[in-house]
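G., before I forget:
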Amino acid sequence: METEPDEYHDCFMQDGVLLKQAPSSHMTALNTIGTLYIYEVTRSGESCNKKLLLEWKQNDITVDSDVQYQEWAVVNTVQKRIRTLSENMPEHHNRSKSLKINFDEIKSFKVCNKNRQLTFYDGTSERICGFLFQHGNCEHLVGMLKTILKVGVSRRDKQIYVVYDSNSPEFQELNRSFAALNLKNEDNSFWHMFKHFKENPYEGSLGAFAKVTNFVYRSVEGSDPDILSRDELYSSITELDDGVPHSGGEYEVINALPQLPRRKEFPRCNPLTEEQWRSQFNSLGQLEDVDSIKNLIFRGGVSPTIRKEVWKFLLDYFPWDSTDLDRQQLINKKNEEYYVMKLQWKSISQKQEDNFSDYAQRKCQVIKDVNRTDRTLEFYAGDNNINIQTLGDILMTYVMYNFDLGYVQGMSDLLSPILWLMQDENDSFWCFVGFMEKVMSNFDIDQAGMKEQLTQLRVLLSFIDPVLANYLEKHDCGNMFFCFRWLLVWFKRELNQDDILRFWEVLWTGYPCHNFHLLVSVAILEHESEALMENDNGFTEILKYINELSGKLNMELMLNKAEGIYNQIKEADHLTDSVRSILGLPLIGTKNRGSEEQSSQQESPFESPDLSTPRTEPCCSVDNVRISPDEIAFEKSISSSFL
Amino acid sequence: MASRKKILLKVVILGESSVGKTSLMNQYVNRKFSNQYKATIGADFLTKEVTIDDRTVTMQIWDTAGQERFQSLGVAFYRGADCCVLVFDVTAPSTFKSLDSWRDEFLIQASPRDPENFPFVLLGNKDDLEPRAISAKRAQQWCQNKNNMPYFETSAKSGSNVEQAFLAIAKNALAQQNSTVDLYNEFPDQIKLTNTQKPSGSGDSCSC
């Protein structure tokens, strides 16, 4: 390689640049301050051979350009993916005074940390180097780079700029297949799994992605997952072996891992106080600022002293804009209505009942269930408990109110805390009606609502924790049935009474989005993902584990994480309409945008026709590989052997 | 060779709501009874090690929700079952009437390889309670028409006959598993599905 320069001139210079990542030859220069230059070099003997170079020089070096130039390290990955030094300087003599990067090498770069950090990647190898800009930021340099290189913003991550280079055979190869991978550093245990890439490119590549993501998101607390993931990914897919044909090509490399914005913390606040609540009413007894009230409730719940009153609003018994007078009239009207309906069934004779099997069945089920609802609570304990009687009366009246739905198991669980709080039959009934309006579809006769929610949960989990979603999919848990109880009765069986009151009132606000309880579920699953994926757990073990979480969940932490997840989703670049629609976010028509929407749709285990694009495959969640839907399972690729 | 292999028998308990499925499972596994069990939502299971003919096997007993509406979820829980236990409440006629539909639904959803010979065991529970609505004779007649399904009358509350019933369930499950994997040789005739289980009449289960 000719490295004799003829002449060069500066195009760009910026000082105060810390070397954050560098090839091993420059390890000693890491975290030292230097200056970044862009040069144009014209080589002697080769007319019109002008070449641009990027150079970082350590600050304490006295620059003598002619000499210095010979000490540049040329990072060359074109042939063997080995970084080489210029011929005049053997490797062990390299003093790490400067680092030179050939623009041909750069396949992508990433700007992060508020434009203060810039990392270069060569696309088929490891990251080349990274810099931290201590004075100002790298915007000017990025502007320069955009004029020098043909770049585009990555579809996956706005922070990543991809350099288009159609001439690179490696790059093309990379875009076609993982099949030809042949890693050299097999003794590195982390990458041991890539050994079977050649035999089983599909399994191998997915296993790799699962592990990469797992490694990045789970094992490296505190480090930058974005940088790490790219780093590990690129080093995993380096070293293409040209001689090996790849199979089929039913998958395709796109270009980067989808990256979620960093998770933020949302610790819960103090409950809405009586003072705050009262101050919101005007002279007519109307609430002035409903949104801010709901927001306070979402953040911290409701103080027990005003809970009874606030719940009537949250459960749409009292309209939010009602006046004192409106409510007084409403109570009277609803009271009458309730007792009319109660009388309807109370007056059915035994003979009528015997001839009215639909009614008798409902009544029988109600009686069975109220007698085993929260009997450990003092309020419902003991024989001939009047509150059990009331619980049954309200549920029977609800049967008359909505005979088609009738009574379905789980409803008594939903009513129990309401009656416990209200201690009033009429109020409890109408609040229960409001709760049922929110969860009606959970009790569909064909379970369509539950199946849809389980599918939605899977879609959301795939978006947030593709590794776990992938694992579940491949271990017969893709139907998410183990979360059935969570969703049917909104964690009633998982939380104690105090927590359930708080949890429900938070969810009833409808903040910050639709189906927030699904995000809570995602938060728990993600929190437990290591345990869930232990020992090659299958459906049985996972169901057991989930059931045994009952009584052990930290409700505040769940809400904190779920809100963090919501914000990640909202800000994610690769947010799809399928996720948006689940959360009730405005749709923007991503149907034909990017690769993610074209990924083969997994057939829903429930044949739910109205759900658009459940993206559940591990590959499309990771978004680097596309797989034909008929590919068979590949448990082994992500089995415990890697853990 | 198979004798060294760990054996797991999956047993699914089905029947109308409130016939005592959860209670039977807990009585058998934990020897405890509580009248504070809540209605089962979704599914759960308990495991118990049992010795059958000098072989230690693990029984995995699945308990599911009883309301008909939740039957469609069974497919996730029934798969791979080695025996299905049908339960009714001897004091509640409607729970007996629905046995056919539970049996049919199980066969549809679990889709065992040989539905004709898939082992079911019938338990008439709550035989400590009065008044009785379904006589032992009536239950046995139903069983005869169902490939001589073994029948036991039990009380999850007192524990009466529960151990015997589950032993029969385990044996049937084991036989089913062996027949599925073609290991007849190791288990000669002692665990035939049909003839050896003498249905227990109400007389010998009345310990209350």
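The two ends of chain B are 44 Å apart (CA to CA). Chain B has one domain: 7-173.

More on Monday.
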